């Protein structure tokens, strides 16, 4: 792992520590702290927004992040140690690659500098990311994964052979913009001509790095905007989002009001105990699969197209 990657991990630990200490983070604060451009700060905010319980407030296009106050006293274990363990818990997703060793090393270095080292023991097992199967391609394609990460970090074009869902093979040349983890599988969000496309890493073969390209400015590419209306990883730019309403049986009442499937989701409990669940998303394969997942416990109220299907 190079100095830039180590610095990237350490900056994430510092920012999570600030959130745990009750501070609010904005792009301006991160830019001032590290002397970096807005794109750097925005990428950090996007990652931090995925933390459980984080509170996101927006003023126009600007957003601020904070965590609810949990501790009224100074914790025994310093917050930088807790932050390091939270960040490194994601390392289990890389367990079949050399990156896992480097992630663990960064965590160990921060824990060893703790004011109370013994209180920090065993924290590697007290914070855990449950994979749900993990990425099949990792391990057998460790070098290819490192090359993809390198291409994303250094804004280098990639060429590869891609196997589509139906088995069709295609030779692709693209600009990799983001490495995304969705349902425990890695996807590379690429610019291919005028369109964005998520390529699943396990179906990328013979990866070759190309020339450096100009990473798009924040106003032209923002993962928050790209996935705001999407349901899942597939970007269906041609499908406009619609209002979707489901009625779930009483058996789902407590689960539905405490679970979030989509950022636009709203739920309300009817007098009979059933739950009205509404969200705004395009009608796509992943949305249909999600509806079918409830079985007889769900009824589509709208739109008619989805209900008829």
Describe this structure in words.
This protein is an alpha+beta fold. 34% of the residues lie in helices and 26% in strands. It is built from eleven helices and twelve strands. The strands form three sheets. Strands 7-6-5-4-8 form a five-stranded antiparallel β-sheet, with helices on one face. Strands 10-11-9-12 form a four-stranded antiparallel β-sheet. α1 (3-20) packs across α4, α2 (27-34) packs across α3 (38-48) and α4 runs antiparallel to α5. The longest helix has 18 residues, at 3-20. The radius of gyration is 21 Å and the shape is globular. Residues 70-76 have low confidence and may be disordered.
Give a quick account of the main beta sheet: strands, pairing sense, barrel closure: 5 strands, antiparallel
Question: Structural class, please?
Answer: alpha+beta
Give the number of helices.
Answer: 11
Query: What percentage of residues falls in helices of 4 or more residues?
Result: 25-40%
N-to-C terminal Cα separation, in Å? 49 Å
Name the beta content range.
Answer: 25-35%
Mean pLDDT: 81
Q: Spell the H/E element sequence.
A: HEHHEEHHHHEEEEEHEHEEHEH
Give a count of the beta strands, DSSP E runs of length 2 or more: 12
Which stretches are low in confidence, meaning pLDDT under 50 for 5 or more residues running? 70-76
Q: Any idea what the radius of gyration is? A: 21 Å
What's the overall geometry? globular
Major sheet: arrangement of strands? 7-6-5-4-8
